[in-house]
Amino acid sequence: MDDLHELYQEVILEHHKRPRNFRALPQSTHRAAGHNPLCGDEVEVYLTVRDGRIAEVTFQGQGCAISRASASLMTEALTGKRIDEARKVFAGVKDALTGNAPEAGMDEIGELAALQGVRRFPARIKCATLPWHAFEAAVAGTKRVSTEA
Amino acid sequence: MLLDRAQEIAPEVLAEVRGAFPILGQKIGDHPLVYLDNSATTQKPDAVIDAVTRYYREDNANIHRGVHALSQRATSAYEDARAVVARFIGAPGPEQIVFTRGTTEAINLVAWSFARPRLKKGDVILLTEMEHHANIVPWQLVAEATGARVVPAPVTDSGEVDLEAFRSLLEHEPVALAAFVYISNSLGTVNPVETMLAAARAAGVPTLVDAAQAVSQRPIDVVALDCDFLAFSGHKLFGPTGIGVLYGKRKHLEAMPPYQGGGDMIANVSFAGTTFKGPPERFEAGTPNIAGVVGLGAAVEWFAEQPRERLWAHEDALVRRATEGLSEIDGVRIVGTAKDKASVVSFLLAEAHPHDIGTFLDAEGIAIRAGHHCCQPLMTRYGIPGTARASFSIYNTMEEADRFVKAVARVARFFS
Q: Could you report the predicted ipTM of this complex, rounded to two decimals?
């Protein structure tokens, strides 16, 4: 049960039940849909980028507790970041999820460290990375990204 | 068809059946394994494991044309298994049993060797909305190649095929072939295949029955069903993976061109032209999965000796117990409530996603499946991304059904 409690720790459950920035952003400058055909999860990520900085990030869609919490945490972590900084945060999250020591240390990713519990559940890593891939796609100008393509 | 539930199975009979499956005795972490993913694949009894091991230890050789003792033994084992399978499903002759890699390959074989040469632009391949991708995608591929159309008969909210719509499509559309599932892997619905087959026959439409789930859940008699083709996999019938069966009517198999070319399926090869063997060899190019066939034969022989009617009644009781237990949990919605169901309980929890349920149950040693179960069009029909699915088999126990329900209740509390 310890691994399970690490996976579904308070921060994750809290963000799952009360996701932050959970809405569409009609005036967004970038948006992309992330799709996991294996579980049917769909997440749409919206960004407003001004002068190379992310002024606002929101998301919508349906998914499991892990993907929803990850999306919610992501919107908080990326708001106010420059695009290159945001990409670095994603790299840190990826490392945390796959068990590699995060380059910049856990401090750098703050509350996102709560996602670390996923590393013991290989089947669930894609749940956690889905919204981040949608973010990357949005920045790259791709409309849709799938975990299986 | 409802099975006779009056005959309760004796605990010692059930214990003996369960005891035949060595994998079930293990623990996952601190918890005894509760295996409820039987629609994905069933476990294998010692009889199958031993037959495959014995084949490799004692008889392994390539089949057909071998003059040596091992090849003759391997050939006998291979062809004996074909006869065993033929008897098991009531096929008039063993030559009507084509060994394939599984249900999927069997359906592809029919799609390319039977359907493709007959299909014309505008023809309809009639399916149902509850088909597994294995009974959708092969037809889409031949439809693309021929200009035919794939049309699914709708299913009702409870998960039954809308028979009136099915009949109407047969009547009003230029249907060239009807292919449908006997028992749904995602909902557990047992389709009235006798009725559906009769309707197709009346319309002069050839049929394929996907019996992947049904072969372990119902007696199969292809002559009584009078279907043109029937497909199933060994691994859902307590046999090995990578081996399956296509049954076909003689007149079709004899007229169909090969599916793949290669060794063992030819009568004579020259660069001027090649002639092919008759069925079933014509459809079994290359060295086949001999060990798989031996294992499948052992699985069929083992299963045929079990008190199947009583085991199915026991399985029905497990499904009822789990369904009733789940229904008492706040926020549970059962997906698929057909009158005639087998093995499967698909469900949703208001507060927890199927994958979260699956991860929680796994931590307690309970194996279920979460997702679309290779039935995306059906999930779309119900407006859901997927379900959590527990699927029972003959070796599961009431205690396991109860442990499953209690674990789901804990998940519901955790996320509420």
A: 0.86
